[in-house]
Amino acid sequence: MSHPPILVALDMPTAGEALDLASAVAPHVAGFKVGLELLMGPGPALIGDLQEMQRPIFVDAKLHDIPNTVAAAARQLGRAGARWVTVHAAGGRKMIEAAVAGLSEGAGSEPAGILAVTVLTSLDDLAEIGVDTSVSGQVQRLTRLAASSGVEGVVCSAHEIRTSRAAAPGLITVVPGIRPDGSDRHDQARVATPEEAMAAGADYLVIGRAITSAADPVEAASKIAASILERR
Ligand code: C5P
């Protein structure tokens, strides 16, 4: 049986904590997400350690810089064993294309793809950053740009899955902002339950605190996994 399509966001300060949590919840999930906290702490060597669990590693580096720099960073992450790497689509076509090329060069014959972040799920006021369209209009626009620049998929909230699919049907959707019924929203503005996100067509759910901050993370992961598998 394939693993439930959950990527656990290992948002924690040390490699030891990340590895312990990952090995505990591994039976219930598809893979792991390494974010900025771990990249800036223990660093990309952790990707190799996590790979020993034979699961894809999603490196949420959210790259956004000039194309040459982004290509070099993506190449390093490809060499380190990243299966997916995120870039901010707002960096533009040349930057996204450079990320795609750099990652594939670094990964060699291993599968690897860029995921574009369109609008952060914590952001609900685009006017504040000078963007004069609705969230869904901006998601649509950036999704089209990312698709035509060679990405494998997009990171979007559950509320934007349909918009993303309509804009670029071939892309996978990786969906954070997941909260099981009744749990704390924390700083996420556009949340959905695991069941809602799957029903909307998510390919992978990114789940952090609902698992990592639970009193019993293994129980939380197994409950969410069961609720998803029931729907299949
Ligand atoms: O703890 P929580 O489930 O909210 O964690 C969500 C994870 O997904 C975090 O690691 C966050 O950085 C990431 N993420 C997000 N929104 C995006 C892209 C990534 O919340 N648009």
Explain this structure to me?
This protein is α/β, with parallel strands linked by helices and 232 residues long. It has a single domain, classed as Aldolase class I (TIM Barrel), CATH 3.20.20.70. It has helices at 15-25, 36-40, 45-51, 67-80, 93-107, 135-147, 161-167, 194-199, 209-212, 217-231, and strands spanning 6-9, 31-34, 57-63, 84-88, 113-117, 153-155, 172-175, 204-207. The longest helix has 15 residues, at 93-107. 48% of the residues are buried. The structure holds cytidine-5'-monophosphate. The site of cytidine-5'-monophosphate has 18 residues, from strand 8 and helix 9.
Give a quick account of the main beta sheet: strands, pairing sense, barrel closure.
8 strands, parallel, barrel
What's the Cα radius of gyration? 17 Å
Class derived from helix and strand content: alpha/beta
Q: CA-to-CA gap between the ends?
A: 12 Å
Give the percentage of residues in beta strands: 15-25%
Point out poorly predicted stretches: none
Topology:
Elements: E1 6-9, H1 15-25, E2 31-34, H2 36-40, H3 45-51, E3 57-63, H4 67-80, E4 84-88, H5 93-107, E5 113-117, H6 135-147, E6 153-155, H7 161-167, E7 172-175, H8 194-199, E8 204-207, H9 209-212, H10 217-231
Helix pairs in contact: 4-5, 6-7
Overview in brief:
The protein is α/β, with parallel strands linked by helices and 232 residues long. It has ten helices and eight strands.
Entry keywords:
TIM Barrel, globular, 42% helix, 232 residues, 8 strands, eight-stranded parallel barrel, binds cytidine-5'-monophosphate, alpha/beta, 16% strand
